[in-house]
Design goal:
alpha+beta; 60s Ribosomal Protein L30, Chain: A; 8 helices
């Protein structure tokens, strides 16, 4: 196993299809960004959906939620973007691999392998297909996995240090941008969700 890929797998804690996709996406985005990778303080990663690929993007690019340079855009697509916030220049990779992937076969074998009465053969068949697909992802050409585009985008909203105030109900310090006025009090999302006013 490639040592860099192993780092992503170790960070994620298991080997799966999406960690392989995220690893390949991170590698292609970084390569395509070229010289713009020199100043990491100007780079952000934008990820279109919540999958295991996110962990590989974090581990390989160095963009993380904690550093506030990783954004989950929730567009519901396997889209990965690396952007220079100073210039707006970005590389966008849409994972075309999933467009032709036979999800039905994998689901069928997973269901059989995880059933209470699963046989060793059921488990082996599922593991073999999974291993074959991971190998396919790791060895396929970039163009077989991704539609790659160079684009210019507006920078994502700035995050960073924020002012905090206590919630008018629970008293816990909350980002003022996330407090909502309700019944004359500024409330945090958690208190709003449980209907405290």
């Amino acid at each position: 196993m490639d040592p860099e890929f192993k780092k992503a797998v170790d960070f994620h804690r298991h080997l799966c299809l999406d960690i392989a996709v995220g690893y390949r996406a991170a590698k292609v985005l970084m390569r395509e960004m070229g010289d713009q990778m020199k100043n990491m303080k100007e780079l952000v990663a934008l990820v279109g959906n919540e999958t295991c690929a996110l962990d590989a993007i974090q581990e390989i690019t160095g963009c993380t939620f904690g550093k506030r340079n990783l954004y989950l855009t929730q567009v519901g697509k396997p889209v990965y973007i690396l952007q220079n916030t100073k210039t707006g220049k970005a590389v966008r990779a849409y994972c075309i691999y999933w467009d032709t992937f036979d999800h039905g076969q994998l689901r069928k074998l997973r269901k059989e392998a995880t059933a209470p009465n699963a046989t060793a053969e059921n488990k082996a068949a599922f593991q073999k297909l999974t291993d074959d697909k991971i190998n396919e992802i790791l060895t396929a050409s970039d163009s077989a996995l991704f539609k790659i585009e160079h684009v210019t985008l507006p920078p994502p909203p700035k995050t960073g240090k924020y002012d905090a105030e206590p919630c008018g109900n629970c008293g816990e310090q909350t980002n003022v941008a996330l407090l909502r006025e309700e019944g004359g009090k500024k409330l945090c999302k958690e208190c709003l969700q449980v209907g405290v006013h």
